[in-house]
Please model this.
Amino acid sequence: MKSFIEEVLRFDAPVHGILRFTKGDAEIAGAKILKNTVVMPRYGAANRDQTKFPNPDVFDIGRANASQHMSFGFGAHYCVGAALARQEMISAFTALLDRVTDIALIGDMPQPAHEPSFFLRPLKQLPITFRKA
Model:
């Protein structure tokens, strides 16, 4: 279950970016960023970095480094609720899988599948079918 949760967080994190101000001048991939510039680190993009996660667009429950995702931020801005969020996901999915079986998508997902948002990643809908266990 823990491997599943980490890959879910890496594959499609609920928060994909957050606004920050640079503390000093910086250079990233040849682009100069001045001190006090508003930047938006994109966690979702980092989680799909193919140099860190081979085949990043494939959902791989056996991915050895899935827990190295950026879905909860990093360093001083690491989410204080990360441990709670993980435990909530483990508890929810465990309870769900104890109660239902044969979970499957009904048809195709809408395109695009998510509502437009600068920060979050809300699904428009998730049409599924299942049977009571």
Q: What stands out?
A: The beta strands are 20-21, 26-28, 31-33, 38-39, 100-105, 128-132. The CA atoms of residues 7 and 63 lie 7 Å apart. The chain has a mean pLDDT of 93.
